[in-house]
From TrEMBL:
Residues 142-152 have a biased composition (Gly residues). Residues 873-889 form the Post-SET domain. This is Uncharacterized protein. One of its GO terms (molecular function) is histone methyltransferase activity. One of its GO terms (biological process) is methylation. SMART domains: PreSET, SET, SRA. It comes from Chlamydomonas incerta. Residues 18-192 form the YDG domain. GO terms for cellular component: chromosome; nucleus.
Length: 889
């Protein structure tokens, strides 16, 4: 046996808690000697490394580390959670012959970890295929040392054994129960500390000693004790219990750290995230807005999903086509492998542009940190994937894992920090909120500080074009960058959907079986393709085939409680979130269903308009806002230099607000008119509402007689918003004109991209036959040409419904970076998540920030609009970075 002092050469072993310096989760050790040298498990002899009795202070805190090596038949490893057996009572043949003791020795120390909630380091045994070159060298880990060693050193050709560092685990419970061999053993329930633990191996009995596995035998025993009947259900029940216990511990930590009134909320997520996110204010008495509701996933504003579904569907078909080529479209790793292979082929053909980074098959490293940002997006795996690499490829999908805090900053309002160091590449959180259309966001631009355009890929096209990288523009979009819809394609899908809607039956013929819809989530794509449509009968198939939204499998998955089912469009996760039931979804294949969606959307638009108008009333100074707008407009025109304190003068000072109200009223009127047209027999009118708000579109709508009806009513028409509505309190208060006109949304995104194939030409004859609205829209036609324009179709509004991401402030030198991620229920669709990752190691309690990027967007807009960027608002930047340019926008 090698003695520690021989291994360490006289150096002191590491006697401390937490991660040992320089050791990362996933680090592998050939044997205990290596683990000792680095301080991961500083004993060669024992499975539990506890402080010496003489070190009473540390002993009372608990053990430093444990090795889970499959020596004890009563161990039970479920990954993130495992039951660990204490030490003692074994004979030389590793049979339990005596009761173990809970109150003495290492078992007592491990019990203290539970009582004091001190995390313990964990190492697991692993066995894997040896690299071909490796000789017959055998790992010594888990041999006769440790807690007894039932096996021995049996040669295992072609296998490599060792220990892997799994980070920090909490001891959630301890108990004594009879061993399978008879006598009592001490058992400890361990749970990985979120953000500080990994599962690189699962230990089965005898894993390091080639004794047969007892895992299944143990599972049978559990099944007989009235536990849930399937292995999966049992695991889920234990996971749930362990998560709750871990959460309770983390909450107690929060209260210990912030014992006073500075702790405004223990967990702003209300239990939705795995870790509690406290709200702390040590600066003033401000509180979070009372209308803020936390959501972990996107929440659709009522009616919006149905309106944009045809356009999303078109993009998703391209994406699914690509996925099918990739063989395993839904496995992120397989998807990446496919792209990487294409990159290699391009490289071999000498076509890979210089400076272009080839795609990685694994985008996260062993510790789960993103290795490099990727314009193609990060493709995560779903619950169907179980390989080790796949499990690691689910960082965003797991939600927040780091101990984040929302705290009051000195000069930027609320901000976010992390109590622990955040390693470079670690996933911090994503930015989610309510999804609204670009046209709806346009109404709130300037009064909403929480808008985020989903136009990431459009910007990539712009960057490519701006850099003049012709070769990239030609090659990359063809195989790498996910599809982006041009404005023309969006308009065309709307026209197609409108035409198809006119062939819908009045009432639903046959209800959609939810199970079939759920099956479509994995098999048929996310927007009603494949099995879901087929099962729904001819009516659904016809509508879906023509672009109208059939059953949405992402929604169905969400409703059926599928594992991946983060709250999708079908779940109400906060105020104003979409709440379509499955019958409503199925109802979308009838005219009745379209009418319901049209009314829901009209209500959403109305609420948006009211929130802007309510804020505006303070500076327009009138109860009848529409009349006040008219007055303000005419006075503004007549007296551009007015200096009085009247409402009109204020409006002149704030032309931006006036413009907002104009837009709000127009949008509310258009959506109401569409709902009315649907009611009176034209379901197509629903799909012809504006999704993207662009000056060109508005001009076309206003100009073309039939094109203007029913979508472009006069901006201040009394039909658009009645007095009763005007006087109703807004569902959500606007930031108000003084509140700092600013948002996460830059100037209207417009980007010139590489030429892309257009879908088939619109069936204008069918549209003409179908009625004046479709004819008008067909006449307005898609925008075509080499320089196609791209614009964000959807915008995230996190003002009243959002997650911790909406509290993260801007810095000109941010420590986080933005990355598009395909994950969770939406992972095979175009609807990516906005992931925020650490771009360097961030010390504990440093404020987290990222560069909002407005200046870039503004420059782009200037470039593409011939220098005429719309400068709407300026706000002083208080980021304090050395390279701070002084203002936001
Ligand atoms: C997405 S929110 C961030 C959270 C916000 N601080 C809050 O209290 O909810 C964006 C708003 O935060 C403030 N903000 C963010 N970064 C800032 C900075 N660098 N300087 C000044 N204000 C900033 C501005 O009011 C901005 O409109």
């Amino acid at each position: 046996m090698i003695l520690p002092n021989l291994v360490l050469g006289g150096a002191a072993p590491f006697l401390g808690y937490g991660h040992p310096p320089g050791v990362n989760m996933g680090d592998k050790f050939k044997d205990r000697g290596q683990a000792l040298v680095v301080g991961a498990h500083a004993t060669l002899m024992k499975g539990i490394h506890a402080p010496a009795k003489a070190d009473a202070g540390n002993f009372a805190r608990g053990a430093y580390s444990v090795v889970m090596s499959g020596i004890y038949v009563d161990d039970e490893d479920m990954g993130e959670v495992f039951w660990y057996t204490g030490e003692g009572g074994m004979d030389k043949g590793s049979k339990q012959v005596k009761d173990q003791q809970m109150l003495t020795g290492s078992n007592a120390a491990l019990k203290n970890n539970c009582d004091t909630r001190t995390p313990v380091r964990v190492l697991r045994g692993y066995v894997e295929e040896a690299a071909p070159a490796a000789g017959g060298e055998e790992a010594a880990a888990g041999g006769k040392g440790g807690k007894g060693g039932r096996g021995g050193r049996v040669a295992a050709p072609k296998k490599e054994k060792g220990l892997v560092y799994e980070g920090l685990y909490l001891v959630l419970e301890y108990k004594m129960e009879p061993s399978k061999d008879g006598p009592l053993v001490c058992k400890f329930l361990m749970h990985g500390l979120p953000g500080h633990s990994s599962v690189n191996s699962k230990v089965e009995y005898g894993i390091l000693s080639n004794v047969g596995s007892a895992y299944t035998m143990h599972a049978r025993r559990l099944a007989g004790a009235g536990a849930p009947s399937t292995k999966r259900a049992r695991k889920a029940a234990k996971d749930e219990k362990a998560r709750e216990l871990a959460r309770q511990w983390m909450l107690s930590e929060v209260k210990r750290l912030y014992p006073g009134p500075e702790l405004q909320q223990e967990d702003v997520s209300g239990g939705q995230e795995a870790v509690p996110i406290p709200v702390i204010n040590q600066v003033n008495s401000e509180r979070l807005p009372s209308d803020f509701a936390y959501t972990r996933e996107y929440a659709w504003a009522p009616g919006v999903y149905h309106l944009v579904a045809p356009a999303l569907r078109t993009a998703d078909e391209e994406m699914r086509q690509f996925s099918r080529e990739a063989v395993h479209g839904l496995c992120g790793i397989a998807f990446n492998r496919h792209i990487a292979a294409q990159d290699r082929a391009l490289e071999a053909a000498g076509k890979l542009p210089q400076g272009y980074e080839a795609h990685l098959e694994q985008q996260y490293n062993e510790a789960g940190c993103l290795m490099v940002t990727d314009p193609c997006g990060v493709h995560e795996c779903g619950s169907g994937c179980s390989a080790k690499a796949c499990r690691r490829n689910m960082q965003l999908s797991q939600g927040v894992q780091l101990p984040l805090e929302v705290f009051m900053t000195a000069s930027k309002g609320w901000g976010v920090r992390c109590r622990e160091e955040v390693p470079a590449g670690a996933f911090v959180c994503c930015y989610v909120g309510q999804l609204i259309t670009d046209a709806m966001a346009e109404v709130r631009k300037g009064v909403d500080h929480y808008l985020f355009d989903l136009d990431f890929f459009a910007h990539i096209y712009t960057e490519i074009a701006d850099k003049g990288l012709g070769a990239i523009a030609e090659e990359i979009p063809l195989h790498k960058i996910p599809p982006v819809l041009s404005v023309g394609m969006i308009r065309q899908t709307q026209i197609n959907a409108a035409a198809a809607a006119r062939h819908l039956p009045e009432k639903q013929e046959r209800p959609q079986p939810p199970a079939a819809a759920a099956a479509g989530a994995e098999g048929g794509g996310a927007y009603g393709g494949g099995a879901a449509d087929a099962a729904a009968g001819p009516a659904t198939a016809a509508a879906a085939g023509a672009g109208a939204p059939g059953a949405n499998s992402a929604e169905a998955a969400a409703q059926s409680g599928g594992e991946d089912a983060a709250p999708g469009p079908g779940s109400a996760t906060g105020s104003g979130a979409g709440a379509a039931s499955s019958s409503e979804l199925a109802g979308m294949v009838t005219r009745e269903g379209v009418a319901r969606a049209a009314h829901a959307l009209a209500e959403s638009c109305d609420a948006l308009a009211r929130s802007v108008a309510d804020g505006a009333s303070t500076f327009l100074g009138g109860e009848n806002i529409l009349a006040a707008i008219e007055q303000a407009k005419s006075r503004a025109a007549a007296a551009a230099t007015a200096t009085s304190t009247s409402g009109a003068a204020a409006a002149v000072d704030q032309p931006h607000q006036l413009h907002q109200i104009d837009r709000a009223v127009t949008l509310a009127a258009a959506s109401k008119a569409a709902a009315t047209a649907v009611e009176s027999g034209d379901p197509g009118a629903f799909y012809l509402q504006p999704i993207i708000s662009r000056d060109e579109d508005k001009a076309a709508e206003r100009a073309g007689g039939a094109a203007a009806a029913p979508l472009a009513l006069p901006a201040t028409s009394g039909d658009g918003m009645d007095v009763e509505q005007q006087e109703q309190g807004g569902a959500a208060a606007a930031a108000g004109p003084q509140g700092g006109a600013f948002s996460n949304r830059g100037p209207a995104g417009s980007a010139v991209g590489a030429p892309r194939l257009l879908p088939p030409a619109p069936d204008r004859a069918a549209a003409l036959a179908a009625g004046p609205v479709a004819a008008a829209a067909a006449a307005a036609g898609p925008v075509q040409g080499d320089g196609e324009e791209y614009a964000p179709m959807l915008v995230i509004d996190a003002r009243t419904t959002g997650n911790v991401g909406r509290f993260i402030n801007h810095s000109c030198d941010g420590n986080l970076t933005i990355q598009a991620v395909f994950a969770g229920v939406y992972r095979s669709t175009l609807l990516y998540h906005v992931g925020l990752y650490a771009c360097r190691n961030i010390p504990p309690l440093e404020e987290l920030s990222y560069n909002y990027g407005y200046h870039n967007q503004q420059q782009q807009q200037q470039a593409h609009k011939g220098g005429a960027a719309e400068k709407q608002f300026v706000m002083q930047c208080n980021c304090g970075a050395a390279n701070c340019i002084g203002n936001l926008m």
